[in-house]
DNA sequence: TTGTATGCGTTATCAG
DNA sequence: CTGATAACGCATACAA
C-alpha cells in the first residue's frame, strides 16, 4: 500500500488538490464546510505531506537544521529540549548535526547536504557565520545563533560576562586565597567559543571591583581526565603554600568543580570551610552534591532562539536581534 | 544568484539533462569524452544535486537517518564516527535524531518526519523494529540495528555476553570476595536495551564455571550521581563485613568503575590490592587512570553497520545478517 | 551513446 | 472561494 498523496486526499474529499493544499497551509479563506471535508479526508487516509516535495515546490520543508558541538554534555540535551518544544509548536521538525570535527563541518557546508537545505539554521555555541561568509556560501536560510553572540544575525545567548561577575562578586566575599580554573577551547580556529573567556573577564572585573585578586589560575580541557588532573595540580599547589587554606576556587564549569570536590574529599579537606568551590552550569547532580554554582536557563534560551528563527521564517525582516539570558547564583554547601 | 540546477549543467556542457543525470549516478556507459565535459561543467558551476528533488523523483535522497539515545556518552561519539566514515565513502549523508524521550520518538515515527523519509535507517542500542511493527508502519526503508540484536533485521552488535564472560573469568582468578554493579535501563518499555542484561548473564556464567559467586550485586542508573551513590553504598557494605577486603568489583560500565575508584581512593584503599575493579567500555580516561576494563571496537561496529545497510541499499535481498564484535579485556593497575 | 518526455508530490498562479 | 495547471529539480523509460 502506497502512502497517500495530496491527490488521494483531494479525490477522497471530492475537491481539487489546490484546496487541499490551502487547508494544509492555512491559506486564504476556505469555506469552513469544505475545510472540514478535507480535514476528514486527511484523517481518514492518515495523510501527511511529503517534506521533500514541499521543498521542491518552492515551499518550505518544515525542517530546521541544528548544528552543535558533540553532545557529550547535559547542556546540549537541555538546549535541544528548548528548541524542540518551540519548533514543535510551530510544526517544524529538527535535524541535528553534531559537529564532530572540521571535516564534518566541511561536508555540512557542501550545499547538497540536508543541513544546508533546511528552512532555517540554528548554530549552537559556535559562530559559523564567518565561515559561511568566507566560502561565499550565502546562507539563503535564516540563521540564529544560540549560546553565542554576533552582530550580524539573531542570537539568543547566555550572558557569561554577568555569570563570571556574579561568581567573582560572591567569591570576593569569601575568606582565604582565590583560585580559578578555566576551560581550554581553542581546538581550532573555527571551533572557538568565547563563553569561558567571558566568564573570566566578568570574574576578574568583579574581583578588581572588590579589591581582590586571584592567587593563580589554571586551565583544563573539557573532559573528565583533564578535570581530575587539574584539580590535583591545584590542590597540590595550594597545599604547598604556607597558609594555602582556606581557599576559594571558581571552576568555570561544573565538570571541573566536581573533580575538585572529589579531590578535596580525598585529601580530607572540608568543603565550604577549608576549600570553597563555585561551579558553573548547575548540572543535574549539583544540587545533590551541594555544589554552589551558576544556574543557566538553558531551555529558555533554546526556546527563545527558536522564536527568533520562527519570526524570520514568518517573514520578519528587521535588524539582527539579540536575546540575553542571565545565569543566577545558587549557593549551596560547597562554599 | 540562484544555485545551479541540472539544467544549467546540461546547457553549460552542451548535453541533455539525461546525460548529466547519468554521470551523476554512474549509470550505463557514457562516452568518456562527454563524461569529462559534464564533470567539468559540474565543477565549473559548482553544482550539487538537490537531495529533495532526487527523493521526489523516485530516486534516493542519499541521506541516512540515525536514531540513537541521548548522546551524553563517548560511546555514541565513536559510533557516529564509524558510521560517518563508511557512509561518507558511499557519498551518503547522515541525519542524527537523538531519542530524548518517548514523545520525540512518537514524532519521529510520524511518517512526515525526515527521520522516516531517509533512504535507510540506523537504530542504535534500542530495537525499535517492534514499535514500527505495532504501528503498522512498515518501514519501507532498509534498517540496520547497531549495538542491539534482533532476528528480523540486519544488525551489527557487540557480544556483551562474551564481554561479561571475559570479565567473569578474569574476576574469578582474583582473590577476595566478588561484587558486581549493573546499570538500570528500564526507563520505558520502548527504551530497553539488553546490553547490561547480557553482560550480567555472561559474568554469572563464567563465575559459576569457575565455582565462584558474587557476594552481592548493585544497580545504578547511568549517571554520575547514581554512580557515586552506588559506589559509596557498596564500599560501605564491604567495610561493614568482617573480612570484606580484599574484594573485586565488576562494574558493568566505566562510569560506575570510575566512581568506585574515586570512592576507594577517598577511603584510602589501595586499588589492585584492597579493591580490584574491572570496568567496561575503555573510555578515553581509562588508560590514564589505570582501569582494567573491556575494550569495545565501537568504530568497527559502526562501520560494519553502515556496510550492511549499504548493501541493502545496493539491492541486496537476503535473510537478515548479524555481524558480531567481541570486546577484549585490557588489564591495568586497578586489578 | 544520448536527447526528450513524463512523472514524483506540492505549492503557486490564474482563471472561473 | 475553488479547480485546473504550470512550475520545482531530478531520474528514468523511451525514442533516436
Automatic annotation (TrEMBL), chains A, B:
This is LacI family DNA-binding transcriptional regulator. The keyword Iron-sulfur does not apply. GO terms for molecular function: DNA binding. It comes from the Bacteria. It holds the Pfam family Peripla_BP_3. CDD domains: HTH_LacI. Keywords: DNA-binding, Transcription, Transcription regulation. Residues 4-58 form the HTH lacI-type domain. Signal peptide: none annotated. The keyword Zinc does not apply. InterPro entries: HTH_LacI, LacI/GalR-like_sensor, Lambda_DNA-bd_dom_sf, Peripla_BP_I. PANTHER family: ALANINE RACEMASE, LACI-RELATED TRANSCRIPTIONAL REPRESSOR.
Amino acid at each position: 500500500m502506497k502512502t497517500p498523496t495530496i491527490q488521494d486526499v483531494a479525490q477522497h474529499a471530492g475537491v481539487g488538490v489546490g484546496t487541499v493544499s490551502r487547508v494544509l497551509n492555512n491559506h486564504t479563506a476556505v469555506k469552513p464546510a469544505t475545510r472540514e471535508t478535507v480535514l476528514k479526508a486527511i484523517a481518514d487516509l492518515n495523510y501527511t505531506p511529503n517534506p521533500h516535495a514541499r521543498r521542491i515546490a518552492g515551499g518550505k520543508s518544515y525542517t530546521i537544521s541544528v548544528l552543535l558541538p558533540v553532545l557529550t554534555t547535559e547542556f546540549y540535551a537541555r538546549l535541544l529540549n528548548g528548541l524542540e518544544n518551540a519548533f514543535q509548536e510551530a510544526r517544524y521538525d529538527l535535524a541535528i548535526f553534531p559537529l564532530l570535527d572540521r571535516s564534518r563541518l566541511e561536508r555540512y557546508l557542501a550545499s547538497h547536504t540536508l543541513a544546508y537545505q533546511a528552512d532555517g539554521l540554528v548554530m549552537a555555541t559556535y559562530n559559523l557565520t564567518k565561515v559561511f561568509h568566507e566560502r561565499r556560501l550565502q546562507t539563503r536560510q535564516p540563521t540564529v545563533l544560540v549560546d553565542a553572540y554576533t552582530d550580524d544575525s539573531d542570537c539568543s545567548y547566555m550572558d557569561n560576562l554577568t555569570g563570571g561577575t556574579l561568581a567573582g562578586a560572591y567569591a570576593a566575599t569569601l575568606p582565604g586565597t582565590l583560585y580559578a580554573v578555566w576551560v581550554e577551547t581553542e581546538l581550532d580556529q573555527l571551533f572557538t567559543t568565547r563563553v569561558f573567556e567571558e566568564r573570566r573577564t566578568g570574574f576578574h572585573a568583579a574581583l578588581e571591583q572588590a579589591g581582590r585578586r586571584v592567587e593563580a589560575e589554571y586551565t583544563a580541557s573539557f573532559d573528565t581526565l583533564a578535570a581530575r588532573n587539574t584539580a590535583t595540580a591545584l590542590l597540590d599547589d595550594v597545599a604547598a603554600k604556607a597558609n594555602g587554606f582556606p581557599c576559594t576556587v571558581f571552576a568555570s564549569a561544573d565538570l571541573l568543580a566536581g573533580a575538585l570536590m572529589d579531590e578535596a574529599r580525598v585529601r580530607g579537606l572540608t568543603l565550604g570551610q577549608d576549600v570553597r568551590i563555585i561551579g558553573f552550569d548547575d548540572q543535574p547532580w549539583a544540587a545533590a552534591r551541594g555544589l554552589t554554582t551558576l544556574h543557566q536557563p538553558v531551555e529558555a534560551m533554546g526556546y527563545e532562539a527558536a522564536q527568533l528563527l520562527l519570526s524570520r521564517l514568518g517573514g520578519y525582516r528587521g535588524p539582527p536581534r539579540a536575546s540575553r539570558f542571565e545565569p543566577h547564583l545558587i549557593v549551596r554547601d560547597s562554599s
